[in-house]
Amino acid sequence: MELNRGIVRLSPEVRDAVAGYAAKANWPAGFAIYQRGAVADGVFVVLRGRVVLRSRVKAGRGFAPTIATVGETFGAEGLQPGGRYATDARADEHTETLHLSGARFRAFVREQPQHALALIGQVMAERTALLEKLRELATLSVEERLIAAMLRMNEQNQFADGHRLTLGPAQYRLLCELVGATRESVSLVFNRLVSAGLVERDGTTYVVTDAPALGARLGGGFTETEVPLSVNSETKGMGRAVQA
């Protein structure tokens, strides 16, 4: 099975250009940046930290479509007329963002068209990634989705300790939401991965020490390649996929 490879991120040059038009903000860990259904305006760019986008399914449970990290965007619902946010957005750690309002975005397009095209391309690349994840939810098993999610975390250097992907209790819960499966289902998969020697367990913490070997279980691993964007350049069956 072949998965999308490479991280698409805004280059520092484009981020600097956006900063000339946007409002910068710092968010403490756990802060709710916005909630589903709120009026959306413009788009956010992550400069530091990470933002978890989450849909609440039921009390105590949720589904996380994606995590926005450095050089990525979120909240692009605000670029459409009358847009409203489709998810909750919460800072997962101390996070710094830029917010480009609708009015400032239009000024950015007029005055910095090359950089604006790169920003639009970034939003489209992230939309493509979401469509790919939707395909995974509909076609892949829990184990396959779990491995794919861990490889993405490792590729984006999320929760990494050196070259080791370390998942404590909080990260484990988030992983369940990213996979769209119950903790019981994810626990069964982890037990198999531990038995296969692909994941190490230390109490309530899981550690992935060899991401390529884990990727080989899918029939194709991920590479740790960041792709700066430039103008030139999950059970099978959706009914269970949203359980976390």
Walkthrough of the structure:
- The chain has helices at residues 12-19, 102-111, 113-139, 142-155, 169-179, 183-195, 211-216, 238-241, and strands at residues 7-10, 23-27, 32-34, 42-48, 51-58, 61-68, 73-78, 88-91, 95-100, 160-161, 164-167, 200-202, 205-208, 226-229.
- The protein is of the alpha+beta class.
- The protein has 2 domains: 7-135, Sandwich (Jelly Rolls), CATH 2.60.120; 140-241, Orthogonal Bundle (Arc Repressor Mutant, subunit A), CATH 1.10.10.10.
- A 4-stranded antiparallel β-sheet has the order 2-9-4-7. A 4-stranded antiparallel β-sheet has the order 3-8-5-6.
Spatial sequence of strands, sheet with the most strands: 2-9-4-7
Overall pLDDT metric: 85
Strand content: 25-35%
Looking at the structure, the CATH topology of the largest domain is Jelly Rolls
E-strand count: 14
Task: Please give the oligomerization state of what you see.
Answer: single chain
User: What is the end-to-end distance?
Assistant: 25 Å
The helical percent reads 25-40%
Q: SSE order in H/E notation?
A: EHEEEEEEEEHHHEEHHEEHEH
C-alpha-based Rg, rounded: 18 Å
Basic shape:
elongated
CATH class categorisation of the largest domain: Mainly Beta
What tags apply to this protein structure?
alpha+beta; Jelly Rolls; 244 residues; 2 domains; 14 strands; Arc Repressor Mutant, subunit A; 8 helices; four-stranded antiparallel beta sheet; disordered C terminus
